[in-house]
Structures are given as C-alpha cells and as structure tokens.
Amino acid sequence: MKYRVIILFFFLILLSKNCIAGNEVVVYSSEDKIFSEPVLKAFEKKTGIAVRAIYDTEEAKSTGLLHRLLAEKENPQADVFWCGDPVRPVLLEIKGVATPYYSPIAKEIPENYKDDGGHWTRFSARARVILYNTDLVSMDEKPLSIFDLVKPEWRNNVAIANPLFGTTAIHMAALFIVLGDEEAKKFLNDLKRNGVKVVSSNGEVKRLVSRGEVKAGITDTDDANVAIQDNYPLKIVFPDKDGIGTLIMPNTVCLIKNGPNLENGKKLIDYLLSREVEKKLAWDICAQMPLRYDVEAPAHVFSINAITGMNVDYHNVAKKMEEIHGFLKQWAGF
After folding, report:
1. pTM for this prediction
2. What is the number of other CB atoms lying within 10 angstroms of the CB of residue 23?
3. Among 29, 120, 191, 217, which one is most buried in terms of CB atoms within 10 A?
4. DSSP-derived secondary structure for 95-122
5. CA 317 from chain center: how many Å?
6. Could you tell me which residues come within 8 angstroms of residue 330 by beta carbon, excluding any fewer than 6 positions away?
7. pLDDT of res. 3
C-alpha cells in the first residue's frame, strides 16, 4: 500500500508538470526586452499561461528573429511574433509563415492598422526622429528636416544606425519609395560625404548624442525618450512636417502558422492589442503613441494625429527593403 501511494504521488507530480508545460505560449519579440517583458509578465499573472519569450538583439532588431521564423517554417517553434515595426510581419505574410487571426479586441483599432486578411494587427507606435544635444545645438540651429543633416554645419556630427537592420532599414526603404531611387541614393551619398557616423544600433546613436560626441542623430522615439528621462540635454524633432513627413512605426503582432500553442497564441494577441497594453506602453519610459484615440497618454507623448506621417504602404516598403539591400550594404561598407 505504501509503495502504491508513493507511485501515485510521483505520477501526480509528473502529470502536473505535463499540464504546466502544455499551458504555455511561445513568443518571439523584437520589442526591447525592458519594455516587453513587463507586459508579458502581466499576461502571465492575468491568465496563468506561462510565457516563453525569445528576444532579438539590439543590433539585429527584428532581422534575426525574422530569419529564425523563416528557417522554422516547416517546423514552427513560436506561436506569436511581437514585432517592434510594421514591416517584418508583412514579409512573414508574403512568405506564408503568418496565419490569419481576427482578434475581437482589434475591432477597437482603426481599420488602417489592420490587415484585411487578418495576418497581422498593429498597436502602439514609435516614430523616426532627429535627436539633438541642446548643449551643442540651439533652438534656432536645430534641424527641421533629415535633409538638413547633409549641410556643411553638420559635417562629422551626425550618427545613424546600420541601415541593414532594424528600423533604420525600414526608414531607408521608405525614403526610396517616397523620393525615388535616384534621389534617395543622392541623399545617402551626401550624408556619407558629410561624414555621417554609421554605428551598430539606434541605442548607440542615442548614446553618442547624449554624450555630445555628435550633435544629432536619427533614431526612434523610444530610445530618445529613455535618454531624455535620464536627464541628458536632449530634444526631439519630428522631421519634415512640411515635406515628406515623419516615418511612423507601429508595433505589429501576428500568429504563426501551425505554432505549437495556437489557442494560447490567440489569447496573447488579444492581450497585446488591449487598451491596457497601449496605455502601459504610453506611460512607460518608452513613451509609445497609442493607436486608439481614447487611450490616455502623458502630456509629452504626441498623439498619432498630431504628427505628419510619411505616406507609404508597408507592403511596398517590405519589398523595397529586399531590393535595396545590396546598395545599403555597399553604402555602409559591409
């Protein structure tokens, strides 16, 4: 009898472990871990579903996980891709890696931020901005356009992240679409002749500007806001409001086709698209802009409608990124 009780006890432990292991969701996330991890922990607490998260590196931003998802297409390991930009999930749609899911929570999100086929949905946005050091640049001297940065007064004093990765790659592709190939190449070559510093990441751009090693840099609002909150002498410009506009980059989430925990994946997507998460990301140090018009945000977080956005189709941006990769690799010296 004693041995039967012991065997039953160990069987129950094994059963319990198997149940716990099955009650999980696997998410690949290119959103910075410092911002995304608290959101995922809150989901765990709220639902009891264990989250196994794989994060991209600062330098590879989205690109590393994109390649991993493509490589795993025939044997998917992830359920959800939480992407910090609006383009890589479009590539997953094109490659047949993302599968349709129409979240009921997405009804509250404006239609232009949702795929008609249900392959992806967007939420909480960042923008590409010029970050400048106020100890080195006065209000009258600040650049109002990215095209100002090729002028002689900015020689050797501008930084930009590696254009082969992350949001910089998206920004470059968007410029090629808006300006046309020849004008975009001219702008980049003018930047290069003016001594632009090509660095490893947007975070490194932020650090160089914060330390005064360059006067200005092109980066994302979340990186910029982190540095401003750390009391560095910095300000942001949303560039080209009277011209081509500022590139807006919402987060995007998609469900992975044949993922191991699809139902839990849907629950995680519902949570990420909720008002609760948009509000959290607005009030967090990353200061992201809600896509819902009725989500309260702090005073320093711009409304999405208050910014002149660059007029681009992200499907076209996704295709252009692949087309110009060779030119950007040569331009950056890699």
Report:
1. 0.86
2. 13
3. 217
4. TT-EE----GGGGGS-GGGB-TTSS-EE
5. 15
6. none
7. 46
Distance separating alpha carbons of residues 305 and 87, to the nearest angstrom: 21
Quick one: tokens of 41?
Answer: 């922990």
Long-range Cβ pairs for the range 279-286 (8 Å, 24+): 280/38, 280/39, 280/42, 281/35, 281/39, 281/124, 281/251, 282/124, 284/35, 284/38, 285/34, 285/35, 285/225, 285/226, 285/229, 286/32, 286/35, 286/126, 286/221, 286/222, 286/225, 286/226
Whether 310 contacts 244, CB under 8 Å: yes
Which residue, chain included where needed, has tokens 């590696």? 162
Tokens of 272: 């990420």
**Mean pLDDT for all residues in the chain:** 92
Task: Give Rg (Cα) of the chain.
Answer: 22
Count of all residues that appear for the chain in the document? 334
Mean pLDDT of 60-67: 75
